[in-house]
Amino acid sequence: MADIQEHLQQEYNLLKQYEEQLRTEDDPRRLERAKREVTRQREAITDYQREMDELTAVALPTPAAQAAAQQAQASLDALHAKVDRLSQQLTGAESRLAAGQTAIRDDLAAQRQAIIDRVDLRYAQTMQRVADQLDGQQVEIVGMLLAAVDENRIARAEAQQLTRLAANALQSLQESQPDAAEWQDLRRLLAQNTGWAQKVKLTVPLVPYLLTYESEIKIDTAGALKQAWRQLTAALS
């Protein structure tokens, strides 16, 4: 009974640490670990209860034995309650995490839509496919650069160089992937007779997308495009 009591106290202390951690936890991996711990604790409680029942059945009905059994049962009941509370906290933490992830997705979708809203309606469908491929950090940088275009903070020479390098990269991709009609469509998009500001707004979301295919773009084109992109973002950040 003394050994069981000691183990129960250790389990209780461990669960208390998990309970304190879950108050602010937002890491899915740690939540999953806590969930596994709850499952393990429920199994341990069952084992301790069975062991205690076996000991009680064979123990002499002395006041000391009865007191020890009552104390161990009280610890088991406390452990049951702690596991139940931890389960509730886990459910709340998972709901909080899911809500946070939904908010992040919604915010990213809004930022992507802001990129589409800046281009001519004729190009919206094509640029939507591009924007959907950008991650959160890329979308943030693209948004910053597009705002700079609206505020005339990007020099025309820099803008034209970026568009030219992007067109070269598209040509390289089309040559290395002849069946990829997407690259031909994007080349036509940049070649259309639009104003330079509109060309920049079409080019800026394209560049981080193109650089993900760096290994398939000719070395000179990829290197020059990456350098121009870094210089532009560094100058405006």
What gross morphology would you assign? Answer: rod-shaped
The percentage helix is over 70%
Whole-number mean pLDDT: 79
- Number of structurally distinct domains: 2
Number of strands: 0
Instruction: Spell out the helices and strands N to C.
Output: HHHHHHHHH
- DSSP summary: helix tally: 9
What's this, in brief?
With 237 residues, the chain is mainly α.
Describe the protein's architecture and organization.
The chain is an all-alpha fold. It folds into 2 domains: 2-114; 122-236, no CATH class. The protein is 83% helix and 0% strand. Helix 1 packs parallel to helix 3 (63-117) and helix 2 (28-58) packs antiparallel against helix 3 (63-117). It is rod-shaped and about 100 Å long. 26% of the residues are buried.
Please specify the SSE layout and strand pairing.
Elements: H1 2-22, H2 28-58, H3 63-117, H4 124-131, H5 136-150, H6 156-176, H7 181-191, H8 196-211, H9 219-236
Helix pairs in contact: 1-2, 1-3, 2-3, 3-4, 3-5, 5-8, 6-7, 6-8, 6-9
Keywords for this entry:
single chain; 237 residues; mainly alpha; 2 domains; 9 helices; 83% helix; 0% strand
